[in-house]
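Appendix B: complex inputs.
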Amino acid sequence: MVITICIGSSCHLKGSRSVIQGLQKKIQDNHLTSKIELNGSFCTGECEKGVCVKIDEELFSVSPETVDTFFEDEVLRRVN
Amino acid sequence: MKREFMTDINKIKFEVYREVARMAFDGKLKECADEIPYNIIPGNLPHYRCCVYKEREIIRQRVRLAEGHTPLPGGNIKNIVQVLPAACEGCPINRFSVTNNCQMCMAKKCMSACNFGAITFESGRAHIDPKKCKECGRCVEACPYNAIADLMRPCKRACPVDAISYDEEMIVQIDDKKCISCGQCIVGCPFGAISDRTFMVDVIRLMNNGVKVYAMVAPAIEGQFGANVSVGMIREAVKALGFADMFEVSLGADFVSKNEALELEEKVKAGEKMTTSCCPAFVNMIKKHFPQVADKMSTTVSPMQATARLIKAMYPDALCVFIGPCIAKKSEVIDSITMGGADYALTYEELYAMMEAKGVDPADYTGELQQGSKFGKNYSVSGGVTAAVLQTYKERNEDVPVKVCKANGAQECKKALMLLKAGRLPEDFIEGMACVGGCVSGPAMLNKERTFMKDRNAQIAQADDRQIIANVDTYDEYQVHMHRR
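Resulting structure:
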């Protein structure tokens, strides 16, 4: 599974770096490093929804505060 | 500062970047971006194309690229290298075509050379049936009059990994699964119909928002702004743009030399082979086209990542922006968001546009800077990585017999990787650089003229002769982690 995080300036200011670190930690804690790949992307033009995170082609709006629930509700469900 | 552009395409690309940068610095890009096509193409008469409306549409698509978007809404967002559909002329796709030189000779060697029966003779010359032609090129070699022209589209010819095809309207398409972001098609297209997305607006916006942004200039920088503009002067100019400071990536290159040499020593002793990992287009080539040998790639980070990690160890809040002659570095940034390294990558073209947008000329500043050794500085020249790695053995008085394959340019990289994959590579170590000559001939260089290499070499000759390992050891306290993970 590929999770793509927008690294454009708008998403950066909304905390994309913390979202990346949060997801990285969750992936490690759950021993999923071989199953999930984290990639960056250019601005997707949906800045108002930032931080823009895509699982394959599906867009989610994630913030540093919601990264844990996002991982549990959306990522884990799709991995298993 | 006044600059001669290599082609009109470079000039137009620059003008778009400069206008976009100017508006981004002023914080009014969103409201005013629509004006850019009219600023760059004024009046009613076309200069290069059929009409001004087409020319302005091309500018519009270039503005979107400069903002980091795809040229058209809904385009393929995965690739750095993008096609400007309005600019693509859909060149003739029949690759081999018979010219007036055909003498309608008696031998008809072209016909007998063709294994597919594609050649017939009618109305005074040979004729190639495009439906039967398999583009093998035997007829070209066979004709004693050189009468058959190879009209392979320049973008396709430039691409080392066969990532280019055409849609039903003959417009170029780039396969993101094959593209290694080397940028050769950008340089190769004579109509400027292929270009790269930029992070320039993102970087300017973050500086406008008070984020501490550090610039890291690639080792091809010496001489890019003229014979008399030193790296120290460029650093002051970069700070005048709003960057917190500027570092030399040749310093990170020294870190890489030290670490990669240790890695190589181990591999050679174990009888294993290794490739470099500093050229991102070479790394992309391994990942996308030779995944079977990915485990042979050095696990040392690239000089860009090493420099960024060092800066972040010094200033934990730093945002690190690579600036170089390379387009593939943008893909490295995107693929390595978990590495704690570079946050964005810009090109020299984009840096120059930012300077012009702000009226900053490095020639007006004074300053001195040397962070990397001469060996680090020569990472940007084919053979330079090897020379630096071997230098560290000398500095440690170690004798490590390494047989080196210098793969200079994407074609040689491909050949070396094929041999490695087949287990038939005679050498121990592949130094892979996707640009012929190294980064100094990269697709986003401002100046590739012969005078540039003269200026560059003269500047580097003035640098001190510090040793690689001693240079790295002065940063011991920061404990820069050199592994990819």
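The longest helix of chain A spans residues 16-29.
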